[in-house]
Write a structure and sequence with these properties.
seven-stranded antiparallel sheet; 272 residues; mainly beta; Immunoglobulin-like; five-stranded antiparallel sheet
């Protein structure tokens, strides 16, 4: 059974420090939001400040990714997203430093340089050249991996932030797209959705009385009714993207789990 991304969406942002350590953005696509992520390099001389535990703050906006990293000192004065030979060419756009304040485990603070680095992909090496106080450019390979949605975004989110919604608390009608199975039974659309504390729960009514449980995000849910067509209350894991669920039907000679996908269309949500 596949575990979904909801668990990742509610992990607390632990590593980023306000004023430093990234404060001021297999290949993976991310929803818009603020994440912490690992920033690794091919050199022990070029790395994230130790106070940041190897992490930076990754911002994703309209599909564009940028990671802010705080370095160990002010000895690296520029970065360039590409090769050193291109950084030296006339007209090359260099990444300029910011002044970040980092706090070490003993409480001592220090001002260091930080940079906003464009990220072309997650989990794959890319070129990032640097120049230090000695005036020479060096090539390096870096990568960004293990993005974790920030606690604030996980709680307040937007319509495409997994597991959360920006809708105000209340009861809504929302259209869904249902796919899978033989087509003999389906979940009726629109469905009723309740939002409480930024979390959405949908009431799913089947066109059949023969479903005795559903599995969503690895959790089993039993019907909330004893008569009529099978009805379930399940969490809405995300909007505008298909979510895999399982429905167990007893309409055959023996119970049978069937995989389906549901897509909750956020632009159709109407408050009742």
């Amino acid at each position: 059974m596949r575990k979904k991304n909801l668990a990742a969406a509610v992990i607390v942002l632990l590593a980023a420090l306000f004023g430093g350590c990234g404060n001021k953005g297999d290949v993976q696509e991310l929803a818009d939001g603020i994440y912490t992520a690992d920033f690794t390099t091919d050199s022990s001389m070029f790395r994230v400040n130790e106070a940041c535990e190897g992490k930076g703050t990754l911002t994703v906006e309209n599909g564009k990714m940028t990671i802010h990293i705080s370095l160990g000192s002010k000895k690296i004065i520029n970065l360039y997203p590409g090769l050193a030979e291109d950084a030296e060419k006339e007209g090359a756009t260099l990444l300029m430093p910011t002044e970040d304040t980092v706090t070490y485990s003993d409480g001592i603070t220090e001002e260091v340089y930080g940079f906003d680095v464009p990220v072309p992909y997650i989990g794959k090496d890319f070129d990032l050249a640097l120049i230090g106080t000695k005036g020479k450019w060096y090539d390096h390979k870096v990568s960004v991996s293990n993005p974790v949605l920030s606690e604030e975004d996980a709680q307040t989110g937007s319509s495409d932030t997994k597991g959360t919604t920006a809708l105000e608390d209340g009861t809504y009608s929302i259209e869904i797209t249902f796919e899978g199975g033989s087509g003999k039974a389906k979940i009726l659309s629109p469905v009723e959705m309740t939002v409480a504390d930024g979390r959405a729960t949908a009431t799913l009514k089947w066109s059949s009385p023969n479903y005795d449980y559903m599995i969503v995000d690895g959790e089993k849910y039993l019907p909330v009714n004893t008569e009529g067509d099978s009805t379930f209350e399940v969490p809405v894991l995300m909007f505008d993207e298909p979510v895999a669920v399982i429905g167990d039907t007893v309409a055959m000679s023996k119970p049978h789990e069937v995989e389906y996908t549901l897509t909750f269309h956020s632009d159709t949500a109407e408050k009742r």
